[in-house]
Amino acid sequence: MTHLKGIKILLVDDEPHIVQFLELGLINEGYEVQSAHDGLSAVNLAAEFQPHIVVLDVMMPGMDGWEVCRMLKKSGLHASIIMLTAKDEVEDRVKGLTIGADDYVIKPFSFEELLARIAARLRNQFPALIGEVAIGPFRVNDKKKEILYHDQVLELSPTEYELLKYLVINHGIVLSKTTILDKVWGYDFGGEENIVEVYIRSLRDKLHDKEHRLIRTLRGAGYRVDI
């Protein structure tokens, strides 16, 4: 189980009804939440509040979300930043990742999707806060670098561990080969995308997923773990 007490989230959006809705929902989930309605307030509040997660709208008057993201990263804030954007364009996603954003959500979005993104970022960046994470039939223990499947320890290489952890933590989300390479192998990896297929095949063997019902292939899009 994931324990949320003491995990802090900063919401930044100039639309009060969105902030109120998200604030109530996240507090109900057990998070500690504060909010800001403009960029400057967000930067100042982040320094005081020291959030673990920042949910940051891109389109705000005055200081926009891009600039806020730059300033937060420059300040040394150790937080995971999830950008909210109304445009599903590659240029925007690349720009956000380049300046330090960790993830993005396209408006309009469901509250459940945002919760999943927040949980994924916490597991990736703050595993010590939540300890062992149970996700369906999996138990991921980042301290031990160990994954159990149906209570059985999987024999995984370090790369297999990182790949399966990334897939499981982001279950339900379609992940392209390029995204997987960036997150698991790193931006400076100079090899071929086919390496992802090789490791996926190995994981399916170890999970006895012969029919690809657990790790699904979405032709032309990537992979998705269904739990």
TrEMBL record:
UniProt organism field: Paenibacillus woosongensis
PROSITE patterns attached to this UniProt entry: OMPR_PHOB, RESPONSE_REGULATORY
Residue ranges of DNA binding: 130-227
Top-level taxonomy: Bacteria, Bacillati, Bacillota, Bacilli, Bacillales
Classification via Pfam families: Response_reg (PF00072), Trans_reg_C (PF00486)
The protein, known as: Response regulator transcription factor
Cited Gene3D superfamilies: 3.40.50.2300, 6.10.250.690, Winged helix-like DNA-binding domain superfamily/Winged helix DNA-binding domain
Chain ranges of the Response regulatory domain: 8-122
GO MF annotation terms: phosphorelay response regulator activity; transcription cis-regulatory region binding
CDD domains referenced in this protein's UniProt entry, alphabetically: REC_OmpR, trans_reg_C
InterPro entries: CheY-like_superfamily (IPR011006), OmpR/PhoB-type_DNA-bd (IPR001867), Sig_transdc_resp-reg_C-effctor (IPR016032), Sig_transdc_resp-reg_receiver (IPR001789), WalR-like (IPR039420), WH-like_DNA-bd_sf (IPR036388)
Domain OmpR/PhoB-type: 130-227
Modified residues (4-aspartylphosphate): D57
Keywords: DNA-binding, Phosphoprotein, Transcription, Transcription regulation, Two-component regulatory system
